[in-house]
Amino acid sequence: MKKILALSLALVLALSLAACGGKDSSQPSGGDAQPSGGSDSQQGADSLPGEGMRIALVCDKIGVNPFLTEMVRALDETAAEYGFTQVVVECADNAAYEDNIRALVAEGCDLIIGGGWAAGDPLDKVSREFPEACSYALIDSEIDNELVKCISYREQEGAFLIGKLAAYTVDGESHVYGGVHCNEGPGSWKYRYGYMEGVKSIDPEATFVFNYTNSYSDPAKAKELAIQQFEQGCKFINGAAAAGDSGVYEAAMEKGFYTSGQDVDETSADNPYIVSSQLKDTYQTVKNLVDEFFGGSWTPDNTAWGVSEGTIGAVNVTHDSPNPRSDRLTDEEIADIQAVVEQMKSGALDMTDVPAEEDYSF
Prior knowledge:
By secondary structure, the protein is α/β, with parallel strands linked by helices. About 40% of the residues lie in helices and about 20% in strands. The strands form two sheets. A seven-stranded mixed sheet has the order 1-3-2-4-5-6-12, with helices on both faces. It is elongated, with a radius of gyration of 22 Å.
């Protein structure tokens, strides 16, 4: 049924494109399709489980965005391992997602992965139209659709590790801790809650100051807020303002407070004040998805991944860095935080349930 539907869709798409001037159906509209490698290079005496199959990633323009480049790297590596053809489609804008996903279905893709929230609504719509055509997954967002496997994260676990690092870094010089975030709300709350819990596990006298840039790309505002927090006594200020974090790092260099980043390794040999980053590992996320797809454990059920699945962590704790570790952190302190990681993996420390912000006292 699935293959018959896919062939029918492909025929319809081919006729439609021919009517519009014969555009190649391997190039979904509104974006750049990049079939890289694929199963041809895998042909040999030993058959791989993915030979003849296609797995696609549809996402924003990739550029140098590590959130997306790591997804592509994982797709490339798992394609070599399983033998499928990988297709990466970059969308020029949000409006291009639906057309691109629809074209990927028509091309006979076996799994379509949406790389970020912008793919959510288009995946919702197309999957409902073609529920048996292929499997669907969405990374770092959630929609109410039993056909789409949504991967969210337990970010509070990584934030807890950063909180412990922050308290060890400050080492009692101040009991006031800061955080510069994009927006106030449920998404930010998981980060703030975990961070505060981690700090208080070392420094029970801790108090906190949080401010918001109300933007994902305002370094100037982030720097201004970080300086204000420093003047209120913060010796550690968690950067969680997306592209605005560069302003926090600049302020840290100027004022001499310590900080951390988000999602990828932001530590730098040129800035000793960035002691770590909370990691959201999209490489491991895509690898986990593909492993499940070929490993017989695939279901469309939504799931939240964290430290145990290798998708959430912290630089110098769960993940090594090519940059030097801050001399504010000792081997013993890192070992103590790594012990917490093992507690999270074993379930001895369960941070699954996050209290409502209005019920939390800080």
